[in-house]
Design goal:
Number of helices: 14
CATH architecture of the largest domain: 2-Layer Sandwich
Number of strands: 14
Order of helices and strands: EEEHHHHEEHEHHEEEEHHHHEHHEEEH
CATH class of the largest domain: Alpha Beta
Radius of gyration: 26 Å
Distance between the termini: 25 Å
Strand order of the largest sheet: 11-7-14-13-12
Oligomer: single chain
Structural class: alpha+beta
Number of domains: 3
CATH superfamily of the largest domain: GAF domain
Length: about 375
């Protein structure tokens, strides 16, 4: 099933996409039904034209594109009526019209046509999750890159939180001032972090640090790590030399902050797609704000909350998207689940409000399914 928002479920086009389908949720259908058949056709055609071109649409251009025979003067009157209801906007009275945020919301809820994702797109996504990577991040990084390329937007992949019990920790020397701490969980996931070790590091100190951590952390989850280590170091301080003590502290510090904040979970790819064909200074400023938000990975907890509010693809348009509301962007995303049907992460696409929603929705939905299946198989 492909669910959009909280209101509707339809048969997913991902398995059998030969027939195009319309998504209609309860609210969207009610509002759409208030429009006359001619108004509905003019509105649909105008929004689709705007999504394709990014430019306001004039009545004469629209009249030529309609499936029904209407004069440009009739189309102009209908467009004026739609503008009065708040569904369309214009820069001035003699210019073309464009859909407002309210109009785009109604279009997505009531008229959006889900397109065929295509065999090549599906195969490219399938290929992205294949490989012998022991860590999941490189796989999700590939998925994000391909997703941004397929959608011409910026992809967001929220990696699953490591909640499995720790199986083994090992320190590896890379150079005089660089070392690696390797973490293996009980379900086979591997996490690596590079950090700066204390000066005077010896092979004995590294071995002792690894043995100490393995003895106290085996069977515990990452969220419990810091508290346990502080307690154990205090109790065993007399048994640890100074170098080993510092190594443990710096090694744990290399990944503990990420675990606690979740900041390393957000993978962003394709930001350059957002600045193509930008000429308007106001748009450039909004994209700059969006870049700042993405760079700081701010309000990640809100994204986590959104993923847990329900399954299925969700579409946030403009200011509906609290994460990046100031940038005037749209966010299409879907949570993915593990084998126990528990939401563990999310994947999505962010871009201008004139995103090709009909094409992006099934791609995001399929990608979320792929990631969930891949993680479930790895954890068996």
């Amino acid at each position: 099933m492909l669910k959009v928002g909280n209101f509707l479920e339809i048969n997913s086009p991902l398995v059998n996409s030969s027939n195009k389908k319309y998504i209609r949720n309860m609210i969207g259908k009610t509002q759409i039904d208030k429009l006359t058949e001619r108004s509905r056709e003019v509105f649909r055609c105008l929004v689709e034209t705007y999504i394709n071109t990014g430019e306001p649409v004039g009545s004469r251009t629209l009249a030529k594109s309609l499936d029904v025979d209407l004069s440009s003067s009739t189309v102009r009157n209908i467009m004026q009526d739609l503008e009065e209801t708040g569904l369309l906007g214009s820069f001035h009275s003699s210019s073309g019209r464009f859909p407002t945020q309210k109009g785009l919301r109604l279009f997505v809820d009531g008229l959006l046509e889900i397109s065929d994702m295509g065999k090549e797109t599906r195969e490219e996504l399938d290929k992205s999750i294949k490989g012998d990577d022991k860590e999941i991040h490189p796989i999700l990084d590939r998925v994000g890159s391909i997703l941004s390329g397929l959608t011409s937007g910026a992809s967001l992949v929220l990696a699953p939180k490591l909640e499995s019990a720790i199986k083994q920790i090992e320190f590896v020397s890379l150079s005089v001032d660089r070392a690696l701490v390797v973490l293996v969980t009980s379900d086979g996931q591997v996490e690596n972090r590079v950090f700066k070790p204390p000066s005077g590091l010896t092979a004995t100190a590294m071995r002792e640090a690894g043995n100490f951590l393995n003895s106290i952390l085996a069977g515990h989850t990452l969220s419990e790590v810091r508290k346990i280590i502080v307690q154990e170091i205090e109790q065993n301080e007399s048994h640890l030399d100074n170098i080993t003590h510092k190594l443990i502290q710096s090694g744990v510090a290399a990944w503990a902050p990420d675990v606690l904040s979740g900041r390393d979970r957000l993978i962003i790819r394709g930001r350059s797609n957002l600045i193509e064909d930008l000429e308007d200074q106001d748009k450039i400023e909004r994209i700059r704000i969006l870049f700042d938000d993405l760079e700081r990975k701010r309000d990640l907890e809100q994204l986590l909350d959104l993923t847990e509010e329900g399954d299925g693809v969700r579409v946030f348009i403009g200011s509906e998207n609290k994460l990046f509301s100031l940038s005037g962007s749209s966010l299409v995303f879907s949570p993915y689940m593990n084998s126990e049907s528990k939401v563990i992460g999310a994947v999505g696409v962010i871009g201008p409000t004139r995103l090709n929603y009909g094409r992006i929705v099934p791609i995001v939905d399929y990608t979320a399914q792929l990631i969930g299946q891949m993680i479930s198989k790895r954890n068996k």
